[in-house]
Design a protein that fits this description.
zinc-finger, five-stranded mixed beta sheet, Znf_SWIM, zinc, 6 helices, zinc ion binding
Length: 140
Amino acid sequence: MDSTLPAVAEELLKEIKKAFQETSHVPDDLLLGLKFIFGPSAVPALDLVDQRSVTRVTSPSGRTAYQVLGSSGKLYTCYSSCHFCTCPAFGFSVLQKSESLLCKHILAVYLSQAMGACQELTVSEEQLTSILLAEGEDEG
């Protein structure tokens, strides 16, 4: 986890990781904490994790991005290193309105990391560049 999240959120994600490693499930009290801290993003993010919708994309140089298959069927690129997602909800609810800490896609990335539920995909440098540039083409 990165220091872009508030300490209480970081701690909760660490507790979820610890509990999941020990028991292969997340206790109810931690799920309630997740809902309390992350609000309406929590349940949809858990659904994305359950559906194994998060893929960590890595290149030979070690560069990493995450792709999350959203509930709408669209693929979003997330960067956990700088706490960013390409989805419209992130731009509106997180950046513009400051109503949420993050969108369901980034929360799904963090939860997938904590639960070891990320799909893994290794691509060439050129393929990773194409993935990253493809997002920009959708915008403009």
